[in-house]
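Appendix B. Chain record.
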Amino acid sequence: MIAIPLDFSTETGAMTTNLLRGHDEASKQKARQAVNILKHYKLKCHEFTDGIVDFWALPREVMERYQINDVDALNEWLDDQH
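Structure tokens predicted for this chain:
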């Protein structure tokens, strides 16, 4: 389990917010938290690789939700989320 700091931001970029239009607030919040966890992991631990995505379901779920095709695109997309 990954420990999330208490001061961890739940803010995401406008692109993520726009893609979440039409979803209920609980679903939006869950999606924002998932993106922020991945951004934090990438920043503090490691860029995503195929092995990490194969092992960890969360990046796969985010890739499916936002229609991201591969880990290189995932890493670039996460960099664009402010």
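Further analysis of this model is presented in Appendix C.
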